Structures are given as C-alpha cells and as structure tokens.
Amino acid sequence: MNFRKILSIAWIYRNSLIIVITPLLLLPLVGKSEVASCAFSLCIMAVYWTTEACPLAVTSLLPIILFPMLGIISADNISMMYTRQINFLFVGGLIMAVAIQEWNLHRRIALKVLMLIGSRPCWILLGLMVVTAMLSMWISNTATTAMMVPIASAVYDQMIKDDRDRNSGEALPSNRTNEDGVTVNVTNIPSTVRTLNDDKRKKSGDKNLRKAMLLCIAYSANIGGFATLIGTPANLLLPGALISVFGEGAAEQVDFVSWMGFSLPISVTCLFFTWIWLQFRFIGIRLRHCRQLWQKGDKQKDNRVKAYIFNSYRQLGPISFGEMAVFAHFVILAILWLTRDPKFISGWKDLFPQGRPSLIKDSTSAMLICFSLFVFPSKNPFRKSEDPSGLPVASPPLLGWKTLEKNFAWDVFFLLGAGFALARACEDSGLSDSVGDAISGLGDISPAGFALIISIILSLLTEFTSNVSTASIFLPILCRLASHSGIHPLYIAIPATISCSFAFSLPVATPPNAIAFSYGGLKVKDLISTGLVLNFICVLILNGFLNTTGVAIFNLNDVSSLSNLTNQL
C-alpha cells in the first residue's frame, strides 16, 4: 500500500481520526490540576469546533460530560448555563424570526424596499445590502442570506437579459461586390471588431456584477448581525461572559439599548464602506467602459428590473391580517426592548412596584411576545363568518408549535449554552486567571492599542471557525486579562465580540459566505482579495467608534466602573 493511498484512506476517515486522536494527544493534561483539566476540555472543543469533526451542536454538549467527570463543575451547575435568561432572550428572537419567515413577511419587506430604490447597478447593490442588513438584525444571518440570494440572482438575470437578446438578434455585416465579382465586407469590419471587444468587456462586467451582488448579501448579513444584541449568538456571549467572570450585576452594563446604541452606527458605517469597496472592486474604475454600455441601455434595463420586482411583489398578493399581526408583534417587541431601561429616562420596568424592576429583563419581553404569537388569531376575529350556519369559525394562531419544531435553530441554542458553560468553567477552574497572568505583559500596551490588536487577531481567526465558538473560547479569558491589566473589561470584550462577525474572506468562515459561494460565479480568490481589505476597514471603523462613542456609552475610562465590576466577584 503506497503512501498516497494511506493518505486517501486517512482523509476518508478524517473526522473519526480527529475525534479519537485529539483527546489522546491531550491526555497528559488530565489530573494535574483543575486548570489543566479545563484546558484539556477547552482544547478538545476548540479542535472539534474548528474542524467540524462532529456537528457543532453535538460538540456543544461536551461540557455536560467533561466538566463533571474532571471535577471542575457539577452537572447541575453546568446544565444551568444552557438555560440562562440570556438564552431565552435569544430564543425569543428565534421564535419571532420563525413567525416572520412563516408569513413570508421578510420577502415582502425586501421586495418593497427594492421597489423604492432605483434599478441602476449601484443602487441595486445598495438596496440589496440595506434590506439584508435590516433583516439580519432580527433574524438569523443564514436565513436572511438564503432568502436574499435567489432574489439577487433573479434581478441579475433581468439586468443582463436585454443584452443577451440584443446580441442574439444582431444582423450580419453588410457585404459589397467589386467589379471582379469578389464579395468583401467593407463597412462593418471595424465595427465588428469593436463589437467583439465590447462583448468581451461586457461579459467580464456581467461576471463582476454577479460577484458583487452575491458578496454584498453575504457581507451585509454578517455586518447587520452585530447591530443588535440578538442579531447573532456571539453578541449574547458577551453579557454571559461578564456574568461568569464578574457576577450577575455585570450584565447590566450591556443590554439591548446600550448595545444597539453603540453597534448600530458601526454597522451602518461598515455597510456604507462595504458598498463603496464593492463598487470600486467590481463595477467602478476597472469597468468604466462596461459602465458606459450600461448607461446606453438604461431605460430598457431599468424597466425590465422594475417590472420583475413589481411582479414578484404582486405575486405575494395583498397584505393579510396575519402578516399585519406578525409585523405588529415585531414592532411591539422592538419597542419593549428599547424602552425597558433607556438609561436617560425611566423605562416601563419602573412602572412595577419597588423591587420588581431589577427582576425584569429583556427576555421577559421576548417571552411575552412569543406567548402572544401562539394564541393571537391569524384571521380577523371580527370578520363576517363564511360558515353557512353563520357561526364564527375558529382561527389558527399566528404560529403553531409544529411549525416552530420544524424551523427552530436548536443547534444555535446549544452553541450559546456551550459558550456560557465554557466561560463558567474557565472562571471556576482558574484557567482565565492563569492565562491572564501568562500574557500579562500585554497590559503595558495602551487600552486602544490592546483593543486594536485583539480585533485584528479575532477577525482573522474567525475566518477558520464559527463566530460563536471563537467568542466562546476567548471572551472569558479576555475579560479576566483586561481586569488584571487595569483596563475596563468592555474595552477589550466589545471589540473582540464584534470582530468575530468580520468573517469576509473564506467560504467556510460563515454560512452566508458559503451560501453565496454555492450559487457559482465566485472563486475563493475573489473572497480573499475582497474580504481581507474589508476586514481591516471594518476593524479600523470599529476601533474608531470604540474610542469615541464607546467610551461615552460604556464609561470605558471610568476606573470606578471597573472597580464595581471586579467587586461583584
């Protein structure tokens, strides 16, 4: 058996080999101390998550097995990490997202926005990006991308259809016969050459336009995901890590309002520069000749694209009572989140008797609206009965349990729980302290420089593993390291969390990238050359906001604020 065949067999069974060999190689760590045992568990999960040797959600259950067996945390305590109130905040967001998808409300919103935006390539790009980012703020990045990519592909087909029809219907060159009876083409030789060159440029331009449309959706989903606390699970790992390291009160530093107030402007700015960069990269200076060709047939293309979007919207039919009810639930939920504790004025939680406001969290609002989705009728209860007997007909609720069972992202729920479990284990075992002491030399760097370095490192690491697993591993360690270095933990933890969403350079970095890549027309080098530049642009934008608005919103320079956090241990 030659070496190549051995490698082929090993590749076929690579997942099984990784699952078996990884713990065997790390076995010397077990039993030396709680710190070493926790490091053993952490490394196993990091390898399994990175290689996806087994499903991410299955790996997320390992803390319930490993930590009790290694004597780090009891099974009761570690299991509680999977059912914290922050988990149910995310569950509420997922249930709301399922209701929106069930009633096709996201597609209606997307098409409506595209109808309002112009049909020129640059405006189509902007429209796709705005819609994708808006939706990914509230529903999963993967679901948003899966819905938007087919729309973008169909719009692209309509944009180039006119050119295909025109090229297939071109007349043959006119010929002329001389006095010797020889027929030659005398009038269209230069124009024919010109047409061939233009066609080459046009085909290149069409391919690049398709790349831009696919990438803009994947990138916008990632960028929109960090704009709200529920936009992506990695965001919710931050308050969870703060609780594990500093105690329950620490999570109040990062709630729905403060997070959105800080991250939404960053998301909008990143989205704008992404739009500029994609134009420059694919349909800007390089394609000035192609752009001129676009301008010659603008009216026909505009009309064709507008007609497609309008017809697609019309096929949805008039907005139903159920759609309006789901949209109303969504708006009410957003208002409840934003007004629970708006900081600058009293929120609705203060309407309750003394002592209760501190018990009310954002998950309370989420569960209230979710409960309503399961009981609120999907048809107008006051409409005239269609039953011949004249008796009212019972209406099904807006969301049924079977629908939720079928569409709920249980894998994300377990991933989030595993992140909290790892944070708790790292803190209880002392691993966070040990790592913090080992790299305490970084404390000599200024907080702004420290945050920039961490942002760059994690934005590159997240290209190779999921943002949730990256945040799960690093956040508790970084929080403790910042505390030891005399830096406000949020000064490091916030950019670390958001940087985990800067996965722009590889198809495997995040599901939106993989979905866009699967539609064809993209090469890995397209993502790398475009995404790496975007990585550094977004990192610079993030750190610029961190040192301005972030300092003001989270009091990052307030030493007493840091003391309050560390005193809650």
UniProtKB/TrEMBL annotation:
TM helices/strands, residue ranges: 6-27, 86-103, 123-156, 212-236, 256-278, 316-338, 445-478, 528-546
Source domain of life: Eukaryota
Membrane topology: Multi-pass membrane protein
A family per Pfam: Na_sulph_symp
Record localization: Membrane
UniProt keyword annotation of Transmembrane helix present: yes
Main location: membrane
Biological process according to GO: transmembrane transport
Gene Ontology CC: one annotated term: plasma membrane
InterPro entries: SLC13A/DASS (IPR001898)
Gene Ontology molecular-function annotations: solute:sodium symporter activity; transmembrane transporter activity
Keywords on record: Membrane, Transmembrane, Transmembrane helix
Family: Belongs to the SLC13A/DASS transporter (TC 2.A.47) family. NADC subfamily.
Protein name per its UniProtKB record: Uncharacterized protein
Annotated organism of origin: Ciona intestinalis (Transparent sea squirt)
Lineage: Eukaryota, Metazoa, Chordata, Tunicata, Ascidiacea
